[in-house]
Design goal:
The chain has two domains: about 150 residues, Alpha/beta knot (3-Layer(aba) Sandwich); about 40 residues, no CATH class. The protein contains seven helices and eight strands. By secondary structure, it is of the alpha/beta class. Strands 4-5-3-2-1-7-6-8 form an eight-stranded mixed beta sheet. α1 runs antiparallel to α2 and α3 packs parallel to α7.
């Protein structure tokens, strides 16, 4: 079994602090949505985001979209998928889910998820849980993919593999504390920064 955990994913609704910014209001009017019910997107809300805390790690939901499409396309059957967001929300992804490949449709689906708490068809496909990052990692051997880790061969059986799903920067201190408490092993694919998508691809290929 492989538990794939995308950590600090750049996926969140528009924060209240910028909900009244002209760029956000314009987008909300065009889409006929409440500002705080929209997914934060740097390509649309760039001017509103300049003073946000941790600004370099936010507003890039395209990263998790690409990574999830890749993971769900994988033929690996014993695969569990969780998304831990930059705001500590933990989302469970049903292995049977077929996400929209169109980015705008994906955004609409995520907005529905944040509003309703779960997406259900014949069964629950996506769900915002009450779990923490620690909850979904404890009891597993934790492997964190990081360019600062050791570059070596590693086994992934019965592991929780953590991949940062944000554009820039490093894991927050509270996230690193969770990794430390759980004796996580930091592993590098290459000795320089690579994208979350590339890392996901390498992990899935190695496990399969």
């Amino acid at each position: 079994m492989l538990r794939l955990v995308f950590v600090e994913a750049s996926l969140e609704t528009v924060p209240k602090v910028i909900a009244k910014h002209p760029a956000v209001l314009k987008d909300a009017k065009r889409r006929k949505k409440k500002p705080t019910e929209m997914i934060l997107d740097d390509s649309k809300h760039h001017s509103a985001m300049k003073d946000l805390e941790r600004r370099e790690k936010r507003g890039r939901p395209d990263i998790i979209h690409q990574c999830l499409l890749l993971a769900l396309d994988s033929p690996i059957e014993d695969l569990e998928i969780y998304v831990h967001t930059i705001n500590d929300v933990v989302i469970w992804i049903n292995r049977k889910t077929r996400l929209p490949r169109n980015y705008n449709r994906f955004i609409g689906l995520m907005e529905d998820l944040f509003k309703k708490g779960k997406i259900v068809a014949d069964e629950t496909l996506l769900e915002i849980t009450n779990l923490s990052l620690r909850d979904i990692l404890k009891g597993h051997k934790v492997v964190v993919m990081s360019e600062k880790g050791k570059k070596r061969d590693f086994k992934l059986e019965n592991c929780a593999v953590c991949i940062g799903a944000f554009p820039h920067g490093d894991f927050d201190e509270k996230t690193l504390k969770v990794f430390e408490d759980l004796n996580a092993e930091f592993v590098s694919i290459v000795d320089k920064p690579v994208t979350a998508l590339y890392t996901t691809c390498k992990v899935l290929c190695r496990y399969s």
